[in-house]
Design brief:
homodimer; alpha/beta; Rossmann fold; 2 domains; seven-stranded mixed sheet; 15 strands
């Protein structure tokens, strides 16, 4: 601990210091992310192509590679004030436990009932749906983080929400389901008998416990066939990275307030929304040659899209109903092994993050599950917060970098994103506590097989 | 919402504004809380009587009715900085939803992994144990909030912790158990075969799922028979109210910063630790005639110790191994019905709170479970935080008072304690969501029966 330091344990911006605009990193990118393609024609998706599925304003944001800043509407800023600014925490206790000269900071996004950063985009997407005069929105959820965030935003705005929740999660993880119901969302186990695709899948695979791909297909079908509804998605899309830039903007404002310049910025990467948002303003400076941050994406060794995937067009969903996106992918039929970090079990990666990685602006590392939980436990015991398994990927690499500093004596400043809490992940912690957790790394042959099935574009 | 107001959504004290002393309300009390009595001799417990069970410094605090302020040791202040100051939140969104002229504030203690205010005393008790050179501490836990808080504090200080957890909770509520294990505590289902009393109870009641009283007895036995261990308790005791005064001191500092004087202060009351801590500095002003706050304790109708109990000496535990305390009590063999607010299911009440209530300095109301969950749901949907069932008792009465203001047009300022989050209480929310929750109010005959068994002092 460092009680004499000028830097407090937690840096909170005042409300007047909170960002009033989102940052669109695409404006700074030399190579823009490739456009979404129509899965049938392989032509770029136009505004009109996307209108049956998404809200108008969100499509505008999705397609805009030019405007660097977007005003955050007042109503969204009011909502942000309920749970933001999130603290930028100086990890004094972790530093002491590691006996490192490194200075470690983390941006903690878990202090809200959704338990993660997902709420930042949920409120934005729900707001534009409401503003467009819609009656409701649909979405899918796996473990339930995104669904929870969206149910909170929808309840606040008085918008109807239909969530299709992967059946196995619906049955085995009842807690997040009940949070969503408490916020007034209707939660349906997927595949259901409510939709054509659901009935088809149930008929073809009696007793199936569902998949995210199937739940997406159901949510999209309901949105496009119900008057006054649209579909919303919590990651991967450009608009989501735009909304999540609030994380990076607040982080930067808090660092600037104390004249701190990070050497290394670390984020976990599943679909890329948190990482993309965290690095957004820093990346723009790096691209423009104003600063030279090391930026590191951390992914699970069990689902290594950046480190072992291919940069190519692929389906965003296993149901293949969504547009094609150019991204680092393991193939849309890649089934990740049972890694508990549900939020990182995605075969692809945000096109923005993918392009930035391909252009050499960032590094990527993959880490194994047991070492992630070791880091999570160390962090919990020293910093007092029980981290989400997803976030703990970033903790693992932050600790590794801090330990390198211990060897070299360098006083590097490390910033990482702590995206959420692990309160709903305790079966995974139990496995770790009981020494029943294992690691799995897909073989080259496995990856080659799923990557071989990419669509020919 | 009131975006033009001078008062921010969340008032955070800066680290330099955080309290450096705890407040001992007993110093201001005209009638001091009655002393603990030896259960065998009915003589007041002396420092030496208490030494086999509690740490020396904590006994000193327990017995001290005179010193109004206690310096908070630096090490505890450092720990507090990891999760404090907690925000004092202006409930703009709830006010708007209620359409009330009342101004509602809540002090939110749930932003830490223990999920409640319990951590404030856990770190203090663990610190004094460590400072005394002890190897470890023992405690009991029911649903697990106190055990979780103590495991966090013990992990931070490198102190061994043995938790005896009521067997039915150990088996049916595995999540908090796993949090405690992640923080390195040993968690034993009670009654166990490790202790004499546990073996005795298991022999007498084969297959019993345990009780808090039994778990206390086991924890006390282990503490008093193991070299280098002491027992710690999370509520009821005077020392706990002292540590929890950090809640009230921060609340008062935040209000003072914006020149706000509350008209009504509301807290839920189980053992009284949160309520006692919240009201501490305000109560001292009221006793001295400097201010005239209305102070309201809220308890469950199913366990109404203040509103329907007797102010008399009673056992603190059902096992009758602990000292007698003079308090409002329903009798130590009163078994509350299955009310989900586990933290409020206590037959007695802090002697400090009891004395203040008996002296007329505060009011008490009891509320029924379903109306509490209605208030909890309303709060979650407007303020974004899923509240603990315990805390929701205070929400219920805060809403009721705000609605009275709507009728009269009065712009009263209401402050209530939001002690924690409901993330581990989702079975209860599920019951409410499914309309399967019921209310239970004990009959006069029932209460008369359990109160008739009070010890004759």
């Amino acid at each position: 601990m460092n009680s004499t330091s000028q830097i407090p344990y937690k840096i909170y911006l005042s409300e007047s210091e909170m960002p009033t605009k989102w940052h669109n990193v695409r404006a700074a990118m030399k190579n823009k992310p490739a456009p979404l393609l129509n899965p049938a024609t392989h032509e770029p998706m136009s505004f009109d192509d996307l209108r049956p599925v998404f809200c108008d304003e969100l499509i505008k944001q999705e397609l805009d590679n030019d405007n660097e800043y977007y005003d955050i509407p007042d109503e969204i800023r009011e909502f942000y004030k309920m749970y933001r600014p999130s603290p930028l925490v100086r990890a004094y206790c972790l530093e002491k436990a590691l006996d490192t000269p490194a200075k470690i900071y983390y941006k903690f996004e878990g202090n809200n009932t959704s338990g993660s950063h997902k709420l930042n985009s949920a409120i934005a997407q729900a707001y534009y749906a409401k503003k467009q005069g819609l009656k409701g929105i649909t979405t899918e959820t796996g473990a339930g983080q995104w669904g929870t965030a969206l149910s909170m935003a929808s309840a606040y705005l008085g918008l109807d929400l239909k969530v299709y929740m992967v059946k196995v999660s619906y049955e085995q993880k009842p807690f997040r389901r009940e949070v969503m119901r408490t916020y007034g969302a209707s939660v349906t186990p997927s595949p259901s008998m409510d939709t054509e695709i659901g009935r088809k899948i149930n008929a073809a695979h009696p007793g199936t416990t569902g998949s995210l791909g199937c739940a997406i297909s159901e949510a999209v079908e309901v949105a496009t066939t119900t008057e006054g509804y649209r579909y919303v998605l919590g990651s991967v899309l450009n608009q989501v990275v735009l909304h999540q830039s609030i994380i990076g903007l607040e982080t930067k404002a808090a660092l600037d307030k104390y004249n701190i310049t990070p050497d290394i910025i670390i984020g976990c990467a599943g679909g890329g929304s948190n990482l993309g948002g965290l690095i957004s303003p820093f990346m723009a400076e790096k691209i423009r040659g104003e600063k030279n941050y090391r930026i590191i994406a951390v992914e699970p060794a069990s689902c290594p899209s950046l480190t072992r995937g291919k940069f190519a067009y692929d389906f965003c969903d296993t149901g293949m109903v969504c547009p094609l996106a150019k991204m680092y992918t393991l193939g849309s039929d890649f089934i990740p092994s049972a890694n508990h970090a549900g939020g990182l079990r995605y075969h692809g990666m945000s096109p923005i993050v993918s392009q930035l990685y391909d252009d050499g602006y960032m590094e990527a590392v993959s880490v194994e599950q047991t070492s992630v939980f070791e880091a999570a436990t160390k962090f919990a015991r020293t910093e007092g917060i029980l981290p989400a398994p997803e976030s703990s990927h970033a903790i693992r690499v932050a600790i590794d970098e801090a330990l390198k500093c211990k060897e070299t004596g360098e006083e590097k400043t490390i910033v990482f994103g702590l995206t959420g809490t692990g309160y709903f992940d305790l079966f995974a912690y139990q496995k770790f506590n009981d020494n029943e957790m294992s690691d799995y790394i897909p073989t080259d042959e496995e990856l080659a097989r799923s990557i071989a099935n990419l669509p020919k574009v």
